[in-house]
Design brief:
With 125 residues, the chain is mostly helical. The protein has one domain: Fumarase C, Chain B, domain 1 (Orthogonal Bundle), CATH 1.10.275. The chain is built from five helices and no strands. It is globular, with a radius of gyration of 14 Å.
């Protein structure tokens, strides 16, 4: 797919940048209420999974912190994919990854394990 430059301040990766570069559809992004709801859901999921012993408390706290920042609106600038492009499953995954992977990784600096735990938390019932 070739190389792509992602801003140093971005918590998203190359695929999100490609979506930004190639799919400028409406100029609209997810509304604050939707992004806030994502944060609330992720924080609740982290809490429940910590209580069930499925998620290490240190990693869970990093995810909870990131989710709270999403809820509070601190990470809104990271949700950059056009909302109409976001109807595509791949783009929905980009939004999800912004919360569950990139930011908690920066908090904990345990990329591989946090990503694995996030995936398990999201995909396992």
């Amino acid at each position: 797919m070739g190389s792509v430059t992602v801003p140093a301040s971005a918590y998203y990766g190359a695929q999100t940048q490609r979506a930004l570069d190639n799919f400028r559809i409406s100029g609209l992004v997810f509304p604050r209420t939707f992004i806030r709801a994502l944060g609330i859901i992720k924080e609740a999921a982290a809490y429940v999974n910590m209580q069930l012993g499925l998620l290490d408390k240190k990693k869970g706290k990093a995810i909870s912190q990131a989710a709270q920042e999403v809820t509070d609106g601190k990470l809104d600038p990271q949700f950059v994919v056009d909302i109409f492009h976001s109807l595509d499953k791949t783009s929905r995954e980009i939004v999800r990854f912004t919360i569950t992977h990139d930011y908690p990784l920066r908090i904990q600096k345990q990329a591989k394990q946090v990503a694995t735990d996030c995936e398990r938390m999201i995909h396992d019932p």
